[in-house]
Specification:
alpha/beta; Rossmann fold; five-stranded parallel sheet; elongated
Length: 228
């Protein structure tokens, strides 16, 4: 049992949690203390907690990692995290930055696509070998977590003004190679108006299966048990 502390969570609007849950359980089973932030965190959330961890793992599965992490380099320069290591992984998106781009941001390890748990665990053991386990501050952790979850203005039903909306939309679209084709809202509306809706199609024409690849890949269920 190593006792090193790992801060784990997803970033941005991404709400994928299955992989995070599997990773969390595996890390705990291998003796790591896991501080779990859940999904949809900001860069500042991670840096607020990073000083209490030996290593931070950030997950992004929706292809917008570079956009969500645009402030990461400035936070890395501003905050002193006492040698904390930074891992980034998930599905970082084709054309949305190379491994070198993220390493230059300040990450120590970058996984652009799927990587098996055994490989991750082996890398952790090597990277943390000889490193003293971070001190445990349960009260400080609970206080910091409560502050993160109750930040004012994290969510709002207020409409964005046109300038803010257009600026944010432009930044997101620039992260995608096909983004230029989606810039015209009028063109998008015309396209969808003439596209057959899924709800209009007959169910017997389009059989639907729930994807179970993650569970099969990690041995949680047998691939032969999957049924349409």
């Amino acid at each position: 049992m190593n006792g090193h502390t790992i801060l784990l969570g997803g970033i941005g609007g991404d709400s994928h949690s299955v992989g995070l849950t599997i990773l969390r359980q595996s890390l705990s089973a291998h003796g790591y203390k896991v501080r779990y932030l859940g999904t949809q965190n900001t860069v500042s959330d991670f840096f607020r907690m990073a000083g209490m961890a030996n290593l931070v793992m950030i997950s992004s599965m929706d292809g917008h990692a570079r956009y969500y992490l645009r402030e990461f380099p400035s936070f890395k320069r501003e905050f002193k995290t006492n040698g904390t290591l930074w891992y980034l992984g998930g599905n970082l998106g084709s054309g949305n930055g190379s491994e070198r781009d993220y390493l230059e941001m300040g990450f120590n390890r970058v996984f652009l696509n799927f990587i098996d748990l055994e490989t991750v665990l082996n890398m952790l053991a090597r990277d943390l070998n000889g490193t003293e386990a971070a001190a445990s501050y349960p009260a400080l952790w609970e206080h910091s977590l409560a502050s993160t979850r109750s930040l004012p203005g994290m969510a709002s039903d207020a409409l964005l003004d046109n300038e803010t909306f257009e600026s944010s939309r432009r930044e997101v679209l620039e992260q995608w190679s096909t983004g230029s084709g989606a810039r015209r809202l009028a063109g998008n509306a015309q396209f969808h108006a003439h596209t057959r809706k899924f709800s209009d199609r007959r169910g017997d024409d389009l059989p639907v299966a729930q994807a179970r690849s993650v569970a099969v890949r990690h041995g949680l269920i047998d691939g032969e048990d999957i049924r349409l």
